């Protein structure tokens, strides 16, 4: 197993996934909605975490083995589900607990 390569890919995936929070920001700006700041905060938080994971391992460029691919998929699903909860948890309306935001 190659932990640095897995770390590099997980960081990149989180940074790419954080970009999915920008279209709601654009739509929120067009329709003048108040949830724009929560999606921007979610974008910044997830992007920053991905950057912190990626930076120490950015120069490791070995090929992934099949086992490493499975580890990447398993390890990405957990942060993926929690990063999607950030805008819902930060938004005051509807008021959601962390559990409700995770399962939403």
Structure report:
Helix 1 packs antiparallel against helix 3. With 104 residues, the chain is mainly alpha-helical. The protein has 6 helices and no strands. The model has no long low-confidence stretch (mean pLDDT 88).
Give a brief description.
With 104 residues, this protein is mainly α.
What features would you highlight for this structure?
single chain; 104 residues; mainly alpha
- Count, helices: 6
Overall number of domains: 1
Output the helix-strand order: HHHHHH
Mean pLDDT, rounded to whole units? 88
- Rg over C-alpha atoms, rounded to the nearest angstrom: 16 Å
**What gap, in angstroms, lies between the N and C termini?**
34 Å
How many strands, which pairing sense, and closed or not: the largest β-sheet? none
| CA-based shape | elongated
What helical percentage do the residues reach? over 70%
Q: Strand percentage, roughly?
A: under 5%
| Poorly predicted runs | none
What is the number of beta strands? 0
Determine the structural class based on helices, strands and strand pairing.
Answer: mainly alpha
């Amino acid at each position: 197993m190659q932990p640095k390569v897995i770390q590099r890919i997980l960081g990149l995936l989180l940074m790419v996934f954080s970009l999915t929070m920008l279209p709601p920001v654009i739509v929120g700006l067009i329709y003048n909605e108040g949830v724009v700041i929560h999606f921007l905060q979610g974008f910044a938080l997830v992007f920053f975490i991905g950057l912190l994971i990626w930076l120490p391992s950015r120069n490791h460029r070995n090929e992934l083995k099949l086992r490493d691919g499975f580890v990447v998929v398993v390890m990405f699903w957990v942060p993926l589900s929690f990063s999607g909860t950030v805008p819902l948890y930060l938004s005051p309306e509807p008021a959601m607990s962390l559990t409700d935001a995770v399962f939403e």
